[in-house]
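Fill-in record for Methylglyoxal synthase.
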Amino acid sequence: MTYKTLTPNKKIALVAHDHRKDDLVNWALRNRDAFLGHELLATGTTGKLIEERLNIPVRKLLSGPLGGDQQIGALIAQGEIDVLIFFWDPMEAQPHDPDVKALLRIGIVWNIPMACDVATADFLISSPYMQGNYQAALTDYDSYKNRIV
């Protein structure tokens, strides 16, 4: 097993479906101070809303349906995202549902902390690991990568 050290200055990805954007923005406002010292990334509209309301810079990627979910997934796979806060809407079908599932799957593959609701996000943001180092265990995928097909 290998480990990745998550330093105190984490890269936090913020994503929300349309009917959950207000929930994410309100949650982020309540936790604004906890974001200081971290780098925030977000999909298009979500990033714009958070940046405007929190007055904190956010690296904005494409909108989710236009590829933003996939961009975040790629950054996770490259080790460029430490935490994912993704308020997805379980009550409404999404035209980019395969992208959503792929994003959640890649977060699990690379063992990054993820929150999909307010309660879990509260636990995550208030964890002492958010402001300190954390040794994240990474599954050894060498045998998978080196298999002969």
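KEY FINDING: The chain has seven helices and seven strands.
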